[in-house]
Automatic annotation (TrEMBL):
<keyword id="KW-0067">ATP-binding</keyword>
<keyword id="KW-0547">Nucleotide-binding</keyword>
<protein>
    <submittedName>
        <fullName>ATP-binding protein</fullName>
    </submittedName>
</protein>
<dbReference type="InterPro" id="IPR027417">
    <property type="entry name" value="P-loop_NTPase"/>
</dbReference>
<dbReference type="GO" id="GO:0005524">
    <property type="term" value="F:ATP binding"/>
</dbReference>
Amino acid sequence: MSRDPESAAAREALLAAVRTAIAVPDGETPVILIDGPSGAGKSTLADLLVAEWPGPAAPTLVRMDDLYPGWDGLDAASEAVAAELLEPLARTGEGRWRRWDWADDRPAEWHPVVGPAPVIVEGCGTLSRVGVAHARLAIWADADDALRKSRALARDGETFAVHWEQWQGEFERYVAREHPRDNATLRVDVTAWPLEGPRERHDGTTVVV
């Protein structure tokens, strides 16, 4: 991460919050959720958390863009991750999520998630009121609006460009309904953080949301 003193202090505060979140009784699965608008750096922030993880057990990382059933699927994925992963994980120590095959535009295989190893879920739609009820730490990542859009379109090119307004409208409706920023226990502005670098979905396509 950045050597800028302000960014470094924010990083240390973030890692301190993670250490507190994962200090749970034996058998309990600590869940960390990361939400925020497109291009804010949620996915890379999650990768950095995994790389600098302060606990003894490595976390399982779940990316919401693997769940969205298409470009109009934010709400469906938000509901699914709460009902199929977070709630049963909290109740029984086992949950699951189903991958969406973007290439064939259909549901694909299920992925089991078993505690008590920590779980990170990152992506738009994680901080719904139902979702945060099962989180030990709920992070809202944000960045300058112009920078967010340039990051998102630079990484995902024309594929995202043609859907930007559609996705942004769906995200704004989600924000108006669920108030995810208010649901967060930690808010991080990553405008000045060096969060560049593409990533891939399970199907091998590059994306940033």
